[in-house]
Amino acid sequence: MNPFIANEENRKMVEGNIIYMLRSFLSNSSFEYVIFDWAMDREEIFEIILRELKDLDFELYKIALTCSEDCLYERIKSDVNTNIRGEDSIEKSVERLRRYDELNTEKIDTTSLSIREVVDAVKNILSVLEE
């Protein structure tokens, strides 16, 4: 959906799609890990999704990828410059970034990390949590 229209009907549709996809992957014995990446800046979003998956047996590791406000601005500005996002997305994203501090998650500051370093940091958190 482009542009995404933030209303109740579309929010419910997106939640339903995500729950369906997660349930499908988590129920499939071919997968040892399912890494789900979505911007969840409030605990209630986790609760909505997890409530619908409570009958499944899986281990949950919550990791938030964050960065500095300056870095976020630069990353989103490049999307704005290529018309992937609207100008208003910068302010909204910076506002959401501040809420990540309140989440009950492991945090990785990606400001100066390469993609490989972010992957290694995630793997390190998972290996520590699994012990």
Tell me what the structure shows:
This protein is mostly helical. It is built from 5 helices and 2 strands, in the order ααβααβα. Strands 1-2 form a two-stranded parallel ribbon. The protein is globular.
Number of domains: 2
Low-confidence stretches: none
The major beta sheet can be summarized as:
2 strands, parallel
Strand order of the largest sheet: 1-2
Give the class from helix and strand content and strand pairing: mainly alpha
General shape: globular
Order of helices and strands: HHEHHEH
Total strand segments: 2
Number of helices: 5
Mean pLDDT: 90
Portion in helices = 40-55%
- Based on CA atoms alone, the radius of gyration comes out at 16 Å
* Share of residues in strands: 5-15%
In whole angstroms, the N-to-C terminal distance is 41 Å
Topology of helices and strands:
Elements: H1 8-26, H2 43-51, E1 63-66, H3 69-81, H4 88-99, E2 106-109, H5 115-130
Parallel strand pairs: 1-2
Nutshell version of this structure?
The protein has 5 helices and 2 strands, in the order ααβααβα. It has 131 residues and is mainly alpha-helical.
Features:
131 residues; mainly alpha; 2 domains; two-stranded parallel ribbon; 5 helices; 2 strands; 53% helix; globular
